[in-house]
Amino acid sequence: MVTTPVKKLTFEEYLIYDDGSGFHYELVDGRLELMNPPTIQHFLIVAFLDTAFIAEIQRLSLPWLTFRETGTRTGKNKSRLTDLSVVTQEQARELIHASAVFELPPLLIVEVVSPDSIKRDYRYKRSEYAAVEIPEYWIVDPLKEKISVLWLEEGFYEETVFTGNQQVISRTFPELAITVDQVFSAGNL
């Protein structure tokens, strides 16, 4: 994890920060942390899940939207970039002309684990997402071929791990019919 040599930023400064490099950063305790570009496998898995979520949203005529690589505020001077998030249309409308960093908790967040994000996805984001009351958080781990679905219960996440041909159970999308194998097969060409 590389931290840029810039002074500490407030959350408000982060929202308008642009160093011209095109790189993506998370804000952690006022410091910018450079995010490595994802792998093609990562992009393919996120695209598969995005398509599945959009299909459920449309099928059920829900007033929700999905976004890739948006931010979620997780503290005073903290913002995490999510691989995929599901938000209400109202949440998106509030940011229509602003930086895509949600201050109200998304309905669901998905993170795809990469070798450099293991601790960040399993530990830091887990505790930060629970603290801001994100009701459902998926940790999709192609390294271990498992999907951990976490549901917020009284301020803490209860975790269910799915593997192989198990169908992934979601409270946000209770009728979603995808298996772990389907998700990871989508990451192959």
Describe the structure in your own words.
There is one protein chain. Strand 9, helix 4 and strand 10 form a beta-alpha-beta unit. It is globular and about 50 Å long. It is of the alpha+beta class. The chain has a six-stranded mixed sheet with strand order 4-7-9-10-11-12, with helices on both faces. A three-stranded antiparallel sheet has the order 1-3-2, with no helix packed on it. It has a three-stranded mixed sheet with strand order 6-5-8, covered by helices on one side.
| Strand percentage | 25-35%
Question: Count of DSSP E strands?
Answer: 12
Task: Write down the Rg.
Answer: 16 Å
Range of helix content: 25-40%
Shape descriptor reads: globular
Outline the biggest β-sheet.
6 strands, mixed
Distance between the termini: 28 Å
Q: What is the number of helices?
A: 5
Structural class: alpha+beta
- Spell the H/E element sequence: EHEEHEEEEHEEHEEEH
Q: For this entry, what is the oligomeric state of its chains? A: single chain
Brief write-up:
The protein is α+β, with helices and mostly antiparallel strands and 189 residues long. The protein is built from five helices and twelve strands. It has helices at residues 11-16, 40-59, 89-94, 118-131, 180-185; strands spanning 2-3, 24-28, 31-35, 64-68, 71-75, 78-81, 84-88, 101-102, 108-112, 136-141, 146-153, 156-163.
Summarize the helices and strands and which ones pair or pack.
Blueprint: E1 2-3, H1 11-16, E2 24-28, E3 31-35, H2 40-59, E4 64-68, E5 71-75, E6 78-81, E7 84-88, H3 89-94, E8 101-102, E9 108-112, H4 118-131, E10 136-141, E11 146-153, E12 156-163, H5 180-185
Parallel strand pairs: 5-8, 9-10
Antiparallel strand pairs: 1-3, 2-3, 4-7, 5-6, 7-9, 10-11, 11-12
